[in-house]
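Continuing from the previous page of notes. For each protein in this section, the sequence appears first, followed by its structure tokens. Read the first protein now.
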Amino acid sequence: MENHGESRRPKSDGLCPRLKEEANLYIIIKPFRRKKGQPLWSHRKSKAAHRPKLGGVRIMEKYEIMYILSATLDDAARKAEIEKLHGILTSNKAQVRDVKEWGVRDFASEIKEQKKGYYVVIKISADNAALKEFDRLVRLDNLVIRHLITKDRD
């Protein structure tokens, strides 16, 4: 006759010693099963696999850059600063497509202890390296109060 007083536990043969010691645990082990033809590695491909191979070609994308110059500059110094900033872009093989000078405007609140600034908006075609270099040099320039680079949707 069978002994009905024993609990039915799965046999712990082949399990690690730690699991053998814990006799009160019921462990269900499901082996990894792959579908026929599925590789052992993940079925997802990395995002890099979907990117087109460039082969050394620079991708020129359209961007809009707005920067604010100090309002205390006279006209000659302001023109020289604007030409210097555009020269940074053109020396890095970017193309300046459009330049709009908005002029002197009041700030909503003080920025770097200034109440006014001269706004300039430019539209360019550039690659990432040109933008990084422009961003790096503008951060070091004391005459530029703020700048913003956005992708142009036009």
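Done with the first. The second protein uses the same format. Note its length before scrolling.
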Amino acid sequence: MDEFTLVAPSPPVDPFLKWAGGKRQLRSSLRQHYPPVFTGYVEPFLGGGTVFFDLATQGRLEDRPTTLSDVNGDLIGCYRMVRDHVEEVIQTLTDMAVGHTADHYDEVRDDFNAHRRRLRTRPGLVSDGYTPDLAARFIYLNRTGFNGLFRLNAHGAFNVPEGRYTNPTICDAACGGCRRSSADRRCAS
């Protein structure tokens, strides 16, 4: 399991990734199950991070240690890059948004897979080899791919087709919260 530790964001942010099985639509129902008081937060199945971002938005994680983890090393690598190199990720996403077409999606996916192949052949965790450019590609594919799925084939290649979006939000919603939360380098989003 890949993980990292951080302090909760301030000011509040919303999740910047769509994720299969995400809890965004259940957010208000889940709130009644949050404990009234706690000293720290550990998220073992991060995904899009809806519960984390909701608690952080309410200020309930302020000054509390927070550990976000997931078995998906690409996901954790992306969160780390946004936390540590948000401006580079945003710039790359902005450039990608301008060139978005079906052909561009295929090019980005092919390049993402080439980078992932190199990561898989080196020792260590996939997340440790992530770069801001690769994180931007991950976000781009998440925002423009079919239903925000992250799926790998038997060869370890990302194989999700392009979604049927007329005008997908690639960077605005994804980056606004990233920039605010990373300004003081306290957020992994």
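What the second structure shows: The first strand starts at residue 2 and ends at 7. The helical segments are 27-31, 50-57, 73-98, 102-120, 132-144, 172-182. We return to this in next week's lecture.
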